[in-house]
Amino acid sequence: MAKIINEQAIPSMPWENKPENHKEVLWRYSKNPIFDWNPGPKAARIFNSAVVPYGDGFVGVFRADHKDITMHLHFGKSKDGISWDIEDEDIKWVDESGKPFQPAYCYDPRVTKIGDYYFIMWCTSFAGSPTIGLGKTRDFKTFTRLENAFLPHNRNGVLFPRKINGNYVLLSRPSDNGHTPFGDIYISESPDMTYWGKHRSVMKAGGSWQALKIGAGPIPIETDEGWLMIYHGVVLTCNGYVYSFGSALLDLENPSKVLYRSGQYLLTPEAPYETVGFVPNVCFPCAALCDAPTGRLAIYYGAADTYTGICFGMVDDIVKFTKDTNNLLYGDAELGRD
Ligand code: BMA
Q1: Ligand 1 mean position to 35 CA, how many Å?
Q2: Nearest CA among 154, 184, 152, 186 for reference residue 171
Q3: Which of 16, 236, 257, 297 has the largest count of CB atoms under 10 Å?
């Protein structure tokens, strides 16, 4: 079995056993979606959101698109990770001196715990254009916004759960201002979470389900086979974009080197709540809970930019799938420096 490193036991995380005769690596929660249309007085749709264990339950930073079609982050808590109490109002950010520091828009959050802090990354408005917003909290009461990691345009910032070779490490997907028709995964380092550099290319879009663009999803999971990175991949069809997700294993000490990359998707829009909604045909993962002793994984994903779904799998099976369907593209296995 792939050994999971530095992850905690989460015996109370959402879980259902694999249905009998189910042939795929992942299986959907039988009561998906966990949020339907109009889940709050302001929120029309909650999707593409981050969940972490906290206290004796779970907390989340949720992407809530409001009824005027603007993008916001709301805080929520839950005992079981399925039934959520989500605040009606946006998370209120302050800067490091305690003054209000609210982004004009924010979406697709991820949350990484390092030490006592929970670091939050999201796609933020910076002078009107998208880039990687960063913030931190210890208690999910005070949310301190830090300097934006990069210049526009960038999205899908995902922070590793520990320093590597002495630095914080952040995945991102440089892009453009719109519904980006391209995009590869890059990685950057920082000694202090303010100054980012030593940029490297990780993976290029290409190959069938991930031909148009790719972006990192949940926080990578450290295993003795490499960092397990779940990521979304997009293909352009005659009916528009289709967002699926797959997996890759990155080198533990040099994560810009891809060891294996899934040539097939793990999950693609099939269920009605994935194929029909505000933006049809989108499965977009932003968080995963991993119970290290058992290897159980619960992946939270946005469905059709409308709903939130959960799917389950075993880390070991995903590692095996990644290797069995491996399809590295040119440059993936390199350090990505040139
Ligand atoms: C991407 C992001 C996601 C969204 C997806 C499909 O560019 O904006 O938030 O889920 O498009 O609309």
Answers
A1: 18
A2: 186
A3: 297
Q: What residue's CA is closest to ligand 1, atom 7?
A: 179
How close is the Cα of 191 to the center of ligand 1, in Å?
A: 30
What would the pLDDT profile of 30-60 be if each residue is shown by its tens digit? 999 999 999 999 999 999 999 999 999 999 9
**Amino acid 130: pLDDT:** 97
Query: What percent of the chain is modeled with pLDDT above 90?
Result: 97
β-bridge partners, 99: none
Instruction: Report the predicted TM-score, pTM, of the whole model to 2 decimal places.
Output: 0.98
Instruction: Among 45, 46, 47, 48, name the best residue to mutate to test ligand 1's pocket (greatest count of ligand atoms within 8 A of Cβ).
Output: 48
Q: Is the CB of 107 under 6 A from ligand 1?
A: yes
Q: Which atom of ligand 1 is nearest to the CA of 179?
A: 7
Provide the Cα torsion 123, 71, 76, 228; round to 10°. -30
DSSP letters of 53-115?
EETTEEEEEEEEEETTS-EEEEEEEESSSSS-EE-SSPPPEE-TTS-B---S-EEEEEEEEET
Q: Are 127 and 152 in contact (CB under 8 A)?
A: yes
Mode of pairing for the β-strands spanning 93-94 and 143-145: parallel
What is the 32 CA–ligand 1 centroid distance (Å)?
A: 20
Ligand 1 neighbour 218 (Cβ under 6 A): no
Give the number of C-alpha atoms closer than 13 A to the C-alpha of residue 85, restricted to the C-beta side: 6
**Cα(135) to centroid(ligand 1), Å:** 21
What span, in angstroms and rounded, lies between the C-alpha atoms of 93 and 302?
24
Dump pLDDT digits (tens) for 199-231.
999 999 998 999 999 999 999 999 999 999 999
Q: What is the pLDDT of residues 254-275, one digit of tens each?
A: 999 999 999 999 999 999 999 9
